[in-house]
Write a structure and sequence with these properties.
The chain is of the alpha/beta class. Bound molecules: pyridoxal-5'-phosphate. Pyridoxal-5'-phosphate binds next to helix 12.
Amino acid sequence: MNYYSLNRKAPDTNFENAVIKGLAPDRGLYFPKHIEPLPKSFFEDIDNKSYKEIAYEAITQFVSPEIPEDVLKGIVEDTLSFDFPVVKLDDHISTLELFHGPTMAFKDVGARFMARCLGYFNKNNTNEVTVLVATSGDTGGAVAHGFLGVKGVNVVILYPSGKVSDIQEKQLTTLGQNITALEVDGVFDDCQDMVKKAFLDEELTNTMQLTSANSINVARWLPQLFYFMFAYKQLHKHHKDIVFSIPSGNFGNICAGMVAQQLGLPIKHFIASNNANNVVTEYLKTELYKPKPSVATISNAMDVGNPSNFIRIREIYKDNFEALKKNLSSFSYDDAQTKAALVEIYQRYDYIADPHGAVGYLGCKDYLKDHPNAHCVFLETAHPTKFLDVVEDVIETKVALPEQIQAVIGKEKVATQIASYEDLKAFLLKR
Ligand SMILES: *Cc1c(COP(=O)(O)O)cnc(C)c1O
């Protein structure tokens, strides 16, 4: 598959290059040249297909011929080694649990897929690739885990000091090997800005091959379309009008869902559920897209003031505001509403959500008010124990720690403090 830059000032490139470069030379995000809908039979037969078969068939066009068939099968096999259950709360609301991977965040799938693609492209290459990634919470852990031990790849993770949960911090600072954590004196947007600046810094890019593992990278972004297909497989027999409420930060996950829809998956509507960082909620109200500094919330993986993938969503809808609005609603909730939702989900359904899932749940409820016949699936994007302090406090109950979390809790944090872009640059150059 060829990819073009959304800034339209760089040449098209293939999947391999798009993965290795991350961002196009004109700073644009890459987007597939063409999305070919899957045959009708794919959806008619979905009950007879395994998750791995579904994933393989859905992603092939985006990665071939650069990744050959047998290699892709192996990558998919490896990436999807855990479950994606839909849990029904009632006739109108379900949750799709995306937290059964090694770091218990939905980003595990994208990170594992990308790491394996990069490992394949790099297998005969003697030059090392440095993956530079900014995290507002879960990306760091998922990327660190996904890339751990991948030959020829060094991973440098920037995270905002004091703005990620203890468990998230442990997950990205305790692995060692080819993984380094940089603790930034700032907020997530500062981390993201530093990463973007590094990609444009010729003094750096002339000395090392830098790439990104944020959802701007097509190999991290696109595999997320699997989730929507997995949920559809579990629900389509019982429910017709399936809508998804996606707790959104950089809007990669929801945008991948829209690609699944372009492939022909019968999704009725999307809901972008936001915390107080509500640029997109405001955009859908006013048609004015106004990025602003992020504010800290209890759903910190969504504390994004200028969602990087929103431009891809606009591209899918050819920047037609009315067409977008028909297919996408957005709501925004503050921390008090999110906490009340955690309690409500626990008391009403005996289900423990995490703060991100709780925002998604609220989006479902608001949408269902006007669409009582729909079935709304909110994505549970992280396991509740990753936000233990908040969750236990709010529902006044102890939550058992899964083994993936227990494994990191006692380990010692190793991170290098930085405060400016100059610090980052000096760090990278001296390696
Ligand atoms: C990253 C993340 C999100 C936001 O996903 P985007 O693809 O950036 O919109 C939501 N919830 C959790 C737990 C996350 O880690």
